[in-house]
Structures are given as structure tokens and as C-alpha cells.
């Protein structure tokens, strides 16, 4: 299958993911909870990165940054795990609750914590390399960052749906990406485009509110409020959409089963 054919398949995947989210909007609650708990975690950690900005480079700075990386990654992975679990339940015609998704994620807390620990370690190493003021090191860090993103793209679905060891989860994630690389690129492009259109339309409404009520306090506050709500909604929409598409790709790649909700996607041409 050619590259453009794969992109087309990925685009259809993004469109069908939109239909799934429309039918089960509760899936967008998980990114919202992830953001809320992430902010609370940073606030609890002495203001998060704001505090580290005032510290000199040293053990304390790196310790705080490591905890930030670890905690943020674990929180994001936990709620993404709940999302992919519920997404697959929706694919099978079931109506999962928020609590069910979070219980499923909690049952994998150990593996998710190991993943967060590894990701935090890699993040600290990349930060150290990027801060070395060596152009070659910065290029190497950028290339490694891309490779790391590819290797771990399916790490959350693998943790949720497979009983694997910490070492095997990276291997399985990489194998899944290898068999779906074109569709993954297409789905990413499609999700990004749909999210951008959503955000542009919403921001146009915010501008309309501003001009409708003039440059006074009400117009400015109303426009800013609408814009903030739109950007938040775009983030939740895009995040949920991306993981729905990722889950669909994972399900077909590993189970050779085409989710009913993705009838417009010709998965048979992905290999």
C-alpha cells in the first residue's frame, strides 16, 4: 500500500473517531481530568516549574524536575489508559462508565508507574543533552526524541490490553507502530486538521463576540472567555480523538478485528 493510500486510510480513521466521540462524549472527560490533576500535582509540588526556575542548577533542581516528569507522565498515562479501555468497550457496543475506565487503569498502576519512571529518566537525559550547548548533541537529542516517540506511541494500549513485562511493552509498542506507520501519520494529520478547524471556528466566534459588544469591558471579557472555552474544548476534543484513533489502530493491528465504528476504514490494506 502506497504512502498516500495510508494517509487516506488514516484520514478516514480520524473522521470515524469523530463519530465515536460524538456518540460517547464522556471519553473527552478523561483528558479534562488529566489536565486538572496534572495542575493540582504541579501546584502541590511547590508551584511546579515556577519554583525550579528560581533555583540554581544542582541536585535539588534535578530532583524536583524528575518528580515533575514522573508525576506528570503517570497522571497523563493513567487517564489515557482509562480512555483507551473505554474506547475499546465502545467499539464492542458497550456503554462503559467513567469509574469503569479508571478502575481498569488502576489495575495497571504498577506498569504505568514503571513507564512513567522510564519516561522521566529519558526526559532528564534529553534535557541534560539539550542544555550542553553542543550542536551535534542537540541534533542527536532531537533524533532520539523522535525515535522515542515512535517506539512508545502505542505504549498505553499495550499496557492496558496486554499482560507484558516492562521490557516487552516497548517491543510490542514498536512492532505495532511498524505495522501501522502510514495510518498513524494519516490519523495524526487528520486529528490535527479537525482539531484546528474546530479551534478556528470557535476563535472566530470569540472575535465575533468582541466586535458585537464593542471594545468595552463586556466585549473584551466576553471574547476572552469564549476564546478560553474554545481552546480548552479543542484540547479535550483533539486529545480524546487522538487516543480513540490510536486505540482503533491498535485493536486491528493486534486482534485483526475491524471495529464496527470504523466501517469507512479499509484496514485490510494496511499491511
Tell me the quaternary state.
single chain
The topology string of helices and strands comes to: HHHHHHHHHHH
Average pLDDT score: 81
- Strand fraction equals under 5%
What is the number of E strands?
0
Overall geometry comes to globular
Q: Biggest sheet, open or closed, and with what strands and sense? A: none
The secondary-structure class comes to mainly alpha
- Portion in helices: over 70%
Low-confidence stretches: none
State the helix count.
11
Distance from first to last alpha carbon? 7 Å
Radius of gyration, CA atoms, in whole angstroms: 20 Å
Plain-language structure description:
With 271 residues, the chain is mainly α. It has eleven helices and no strands. It has helices spanning 3-23, 29-44, 49-53, 59-91, 98-106, 109-130, 135-151, 155-161, 166-179, 181-213, 217-255. The longest helix is centred in the C-terminal third of the chain and has 39 residues, at 217-255. The protein is globular. The termini are close together. 34% of the residues are buried.
